[in-house]
Amino acid sequence: MLPASLGRYIGNLEDSLGVRLINRTTRHVALTAVGAELLDDIKDLLNRVENIEAKAHNFDRLDSLTLRVGSIDSAAAGLLPPLLNFFKTERPDIEVTLFEQKTIRLLPRLLSGRLDLAFVRPPDVRPDRIVFRPLLNETPVVAVPTSHPLADRSSVKIEDLAQEPLIVPDRGSRPHSHDLTIQLFAEAGLTAKIAQIAEEKQTIVNIVSAGLGLAIVPRWASRFAVGNVKFVPIETHSSQAMTKLSLAAAWVRDVRDPARDALLDCLIRHLEDFQKSA
């Protein structure tokens, strides 16, 4: 929310209550005595509203045979097809609908009850109401045009990419993937030559296909239907950076959902196989 919009909301709230809640200047913002007094009551009220929403969603989900699953793009390409194949065999009575989006868009949908389960990159700051179950770490590879000299290599080092133009994701929407590229170069004592920023991994791989640069992407991105691109493994002297593309299952805490739990149970039983392919 823009500061000006936030200021208008606060002003409207103060007008409706007839009291000043916040003292604000260009350099300082602080609660008034009245604002501080009301804050605990407001927090309690919001917690009660969230509990009512969770309880209502709980009742709604108990008999539901439709499962709404959200996923980031690489997991939608690599994890979900085999997982749903196993799940369909075990539970043909449960219908699964999929919604593909970035983590920052999936988590609000979980909290609002529009999704029952999501496969996401666990954020640094995690909402208390969401449970994150770590699953695996996706292996990063380099996407290169098939006409590029590096396409014939069995593996590449970050030093081999020092002079190459790179296509990287926008940090605001994909911080993990963006930071992984920057970190891999920093650990090699290099600076990434960013030629283009794009939001979607499918778009990034398409740009690579057009010969406009290289990109570091999860290995599951190789399952996108894009021609003229080779995905080459990365050699690294550090295992730390290679573990940053973590994937987790996420769901709202204290919400009972037999269909969700059935899918999670199927996932855990086959997780070792999925980890090998990531």
The poorly predicted ranges are none
Q: Which structural class matches the secondary elements?
A: alpha/beta
User: Which architecture of the largest domain does the CATH hierarchy give at level 2?
Assistant: 3-Layer(aba) Sandwich
Order of helices and strands: HEEHEHHEHEEEEEHEHEEEH
The number of E-state strands comes to: 13
> How many domains would you count in the coordinates?
3
This entry's quaternary arrangement is: single chain
The CATH superfamily of the largest domain bears the name Periplasmic binding protein-like II
Portion of residues within helices: 40-55%
CATH class of the largest domain: Alpha Beta
What is the CATH topology of the largest domain?
Answer: D-Maltodextrin-Binding Protein, domain 2
| Major β-sheet annotation | 5 strands, mixed
Strand content: 15-25%
Strand order of the largest sheet: 4-3-5-13-6
The N- and C-terminal alpha carbons lie at a distance of 36 Å
- Give me the number of helical elements: 8
Overall mean pLDDT score?
86
Rg from Cα = 23 Å
Global shape = flat
Structure, described:
- This protein folds into 3 domains: 3-50, Arc Repressor Mutant, subunit A (Orthogonal Bundle), CATH 1.10.10; 64-137 and 246-277, D-Maltodextrin-Binding Protein, domain 2 (3-Layer(aba) Sandwich); 140-243, D-Maltodextrin-Binding Protein, domain 2.
- It has helices at 3-17, 33-62, 73-78, 80-90, 103-111, 175-187, 201-209, 258-277, and strands at 22-24, 29-31, 66-71, 95-100, 117-120, 130-137, 140-145, 156-157, 166-169, 194-198, 215-218, 229-235, 246-252.
- The strands form 4 sheets. Strands 4-3-5-13-6 form a 5-stranded mixed β-sheet, sandwiched between helices. Strands 8-12-7-11 form a 4-stranded mixed β-sheet.
- Helix 6 links the parallel strand 9 (166-169) and strand 10 (194-198).
- It is α/β, with parallel strands linked by helices and 278 residues long.
- The protein contains 8 helices and 13 strands.
